[in-house]
Amino acid sequence: MKITRQTLHHLIRNKLGSAGLSEEHASIVADVLVHADARGIHSHGAVRVEYYAERISKGGTNVQPQFSFEKTGPCSAIFDGDNGAGHVAATCAMEHAITMAQEQGVAVVGARRIGHSGALSYFVQQAAKAGMIGISICQSDPMVVPYGGAEVYFGTNPIAFAAPGVSDDIITFDMATTVQAWGKVLDARSRNASIPETWAVDKQGVPTTDPFAVKGLLPIAGPKGYGLMMMVDVLSGMLLGLPFGKHVSSMYHDLSQGRELGQLHIVINPAFFTSAEIFRHHVSQMMQELNSIQAAPGFEQVLYPGQNADIIEQESETQGIEIVDEIYEYLISDALYHRSYDHKDPFAG
């Protein structure tokens, strides 16, 4: 079914508020989740609310976090999220990074001790809307079979980038370092749909099309994705003094405990390197030139990175956001959660 952006935001905010989040924090989390659903990234949207509500109600998300921000150099800082809602902590950390980059040209802000923060595209677009280049990376719990291995070690460890063009133009790139994010498997489960055999493996390490049989995700492009996820873990885990690799807390291990996750924001002010006006013009020019390239057989048009999500988001403004009926029924119900995620296998989802 399809519902308006405003309705979805209201339902998510109310559910998270019922679980214990403040109205302010519930609204910010809802902003990030609706952003994901509106762009067709349903793996990071409303499908996550039931899990968040259970973790909040059981104390694993600090509903009264004492956030702190400490500058460690002219262009560097640490934001401590006190295991509050990751979406809120990451949003606040990016706001600090933007301010620092406006003054210093570059900002590197590590957000440590935070919960799951959702789609990284939201945070890099914060920077782009302020006229900055945004890069964000974060670690996640071990769910990926390393290249050549048969046991999970790293997480899906995503990377996101955004840059501003002329007027409202923003080019956004957001990817997991796996062939697909775990949330995509969750989305397939919610729709009782199969998955491509290139996404994941079963408990024997054999590629599977059954989303319920998944016991390990596969790195994108084999050794290249494997190397990227290692890089993300070093920069958003080790660099911030946090657990790394297989030591990162599982999403479902104990919902009464904080996740202690890390995220790194890098913000660059184009005005410190070139003319900001010319930079934005060139970004828009590149977007237009990519669209004008002759399409290969089987393709209607060459799209710039992230354009498909842009199109879906624009359509959602008039046509509504697609939500699975089961998720909608949960959102309008009085229940905080129908099934418990607590202490489940990481791939139970």
What does this structure look like?
With 349 residues, the protein is α+β, with helices and mostly antiparallel strands. It has one domain: Ribosomal Protein S8, Chain: A, domain 1 (2-Layer Sandwich), CATH 3.30.1370.60. The chain has helices spanning 5-19, 23-38, 49-57, 86-104, 121-129, 182-190, 223-236, 276-292, 307-319, 325-332, and strands spanning 2-3, 68-71, 76-80, 106-114, 133-138, 159-164, 170-175, 200-201, 216-217, 261-268, 321-322. The strands form three sheets. It has a seven-stranded mixed beta sheet with strand order 2-3-4-10-5-6-7, with helices on both faces. Strands 1-11 form a two-stranded antiparallel ribbon. A hairpin with a 4-residue loop joins strand 2 (68-71) and strand 3. Helix 1 packs parallel to helix 3. The longest helix is centred in the N-terminal third of the chain and has 19 residues, at 86-104. The radius of gyration is 20 Å and the shape is globular. The two termini are 23 Å apart. The mean pLDDT is 95.
User: Which CATH top level class fits?
Assistant: Alpha Beta
SS-based class:
alpha+beta
Element-by-element helix/strand order: EHHHEEHEHEEEHEEHEHHEH
Fraction of helical residues? 25-40%
Number of β-strand runs? 11
Which percent range describes the beta-strand content? 5-15%
Based on CA inertia axes, which overall geometry fits?
globular
CA distance, first residue to last residue: 23 Å
Low-confidence stretches: none
Number of helices: 10
Strand order of the largest sheet: 2-3-4-10-5-6-7
CATH topology: Ribosomal Protein S8, Chain: A, domain 1
Task: Give the overall average pLDDT.
Answer: 95
Domain tally: 1
CATH-wise, what's the superfamily? Malate/L-lactate/L-sulpholactate dehydrogenase, NADPH binding domain
CATH architecture: 2-Layer Sandwich
Tell me the Rg in angstroms: 20 Å
Query: How can the largest sheet be summarized?
Result: 7 strands, mixed
